[in-house]
Amino acid sequence: QAKLSGRNQYHLFDLQKDEEVRTRHNQRARIREALLKDEFELYFQPKVDMRHGRITGMEALIRWNHPQRGIVGPMEFLPLVENTNIIIDIGNWVIHQTLQQMSNWVANGYNWIVSVNIAARHFQHADFLENLRSYLAQFPDVPPEYLEIEILESAALQDVQQVREVMSACQQLGVRFALDDFGTGYSSLSYLKRLPANILKIDQSFVRDMLEDSDDLALISAIVGLANAFKREVIAEGVETIEHGVALMRLGCNFAQGYGVSRPMPASRVEKWAESYVQPEQWLQQA
Ligand code: C2E
Ligand code: MG
Ligand code: MG
Ligand code: MG
Where is the EAL domain (predicted)? Predict the structure, then answer.
């Protein structure tokens, strides 16, 4: 009796697993289809220098305009494909689309550094450098120095030697690099010496609690010190309030990105936003 129910249970479990695999397969197929059907869209979130309110750049963040579900955020679909080649197709679409947008902005006199998020699998792909080179060649009016690639600190740590090589080769083209979600990757101080990233992006989890949690404040202070010591730039993400910005400036971090500046917005709204942006008085006073 016990044996029988055991076998039945195993059987049931098997079916469930099968169902799960099929669902994931369908979801992935749907994501691939979304790319072909042009259902993805890039939103852009500004970055500013709090000392004077200059807009220094934008980050491209992908959205899925799903015909039934509305706007779907990247955390709801990218994890399903990050270990497949779909993430590479999506990443290439993001790079191309971003350069296209930058070309418009450059023509209108906006000299912004625009960053794209690139997955580890894509970045580590043998064709990454060549593809990047050919995309840049398609937009000769966009200075490569205006393009920035964000890779997760945790991803860069997977294979520091390889990441270092690709990073340096891309930098030869003029492209900049940022280490995203910095501080969450259990990094040792010494590996930063080997990674020529131009900028560290302080993870928003530290920024969120910095006004209440002195440990987070200390961590941010340490990251700013690290950036200074290694002559890298540093920016805080997730700057939701004016007070967060003031506290960051006191620690020597002058670049900010977050809802306190602007939420990500469709490309069509960016220029109008930039024309009407007013820097908080407290930030100017803190400078
Ligand atoms: P990320 O690159 O660290 O981007 C920051 C995320 O925090 C974005 O979420 C942004 O909308 C959100 N954010 C910005 N300011 C604030 C704030 O003040 N408060 C809070 N609570 N959140 C804020 P989003 O757009 O949902 O993207 C999530 C993650 O998905 C990104 O994290 C990035 O890792 C990934 N991602 C987004 N677009 C792409 C893409 O085109 N390709 C790849 N491979 N990954 C992407
Ligand atoms: Mg990012
Ligand atoms: Mg981040
Ligand atoms: Mg993140």
Answer: 24-278
Kindly report the pTM of this predicted structure. Answer: 0.94
Distance 200 CA to ligand 1 centre (A): 15
Q: Which of 117, 181, 203 maximizes ligand 1 atoms within 8 Å of its Cβ, making it the mutation to test the pocket?
A: 117
Residue 63: which residues within 8 A CB-CB, separation 6 or more?
40, 41, 42, 43, 71, 72, 73, 74
State the pLDDT confidence band at 18, using cuts at 50, 70 and 90. confident
Mean pLDDT within 242-248? 98
Mean of the pLDDT values across residues 245-256? 98
ipTM: 0.98
pLDDT band at 5; cut points 50, 70, 90: low
Tell me, in angstroms, the distance from the centre of ligand 1 to residue 4's CA: 49
Q: Which pLDDT tens digit goes with each residue over 23-34?
A: 999 999 999 999
pLDDT of residue 16: 78
**Per residue in 88-112, pLDDT tens?**
999 999 999 999 999 999 999 999 9
Question: Distance from the CA of 39 to the center of ligand 4, in angstroms?
Answer: 22
